[in-house]
Amino acid sequence: MSSSQRAFGRFACTFFTALFLSGAAWAQTTVPIGTVEANIDGASYRGETLHVPSEGTATAEVRDFGPLRMVDIQAHDPDAASIMRGVLSVEFGLISGADASATDASVSYFPEGMRNFYVSDEEPAHASVTLETLHIDGAQGNARGTFSSLLCKREGMMSKIDTEDCITVEGTFDTVLHLAD
Fold first, then answer.
1. Hey, which residues does 12 pair with through a beta bridge?
2. What are the C-alpha distances in Å from 101 to residues 72, 80, 94?
3. Exposed, middle or buried: residue 38 (CB in 10 Å: 0-12, 13-18, 19+)?
4. How far apart are CA 99 and CA 143, in angstroms?
5. Alpha helices in the chain (DSSP H)
6. Cβ contact 70:91 at 8 Å
């Protein structure tokens, strides 16, 4: 899968998750299931991963694609003015049967929603994830680990990456994972 396809998929997932959660009653329909804490370009960040019981979905999910397992951890800043702002996403792959090592990692940060965001999808940006624990049993699991990345700015979903405007991010995650359909 190319970086452009991965980026579009992540943008679509972020957009539709945020669109669903942006309803007036989003606070009553979600349950925090984990945290992501980070230092983003020198500023502290704390976000929550969310379970949406009425929909049976979550913003921290694992998906199986044959022998590849993808983990997507999307944290939302509970103090942000909108559910679409202050979103930090960590995504990585696992090969079935392999030890707890993450591959093909990417990190994205959406401080203003779907405009003026930062991604690690293209050069010179890069991301790494280290798993401390990963347990998946049936429809749920748990993941705890660290991540770091250089993120470069995009003004919009279809715009080119601005390699002159990059920030660093490093942090930790500890969340329940839901098996996506």
1. none
2. 15, 32, 7
3. buried
4. 13
5. 3-21, 26-29
6. yes
Q: What is the pLDDT of residues 133-163, one digit of tens each?
A: 999 888 889 999 999 999 999 999 899 999 9
Question: Which tokens go with 144?
Answer: 């705890």
Cα gap 85→145, rounded to integer Å? 23
- Tokens representing residue 124 in the block: 């010179």
83 SS3 class? coil
Q: What is the pLDDT of residues 80-99, one digit of tens each?
A: 999 899 999 999 998 765 55
Beta strands in the chain (DSSP E): 31-40, 43-52, 57-58, 60-65, 68-76, 87-95, 103-110, 117-119, 126-137, 140-154, 162-179
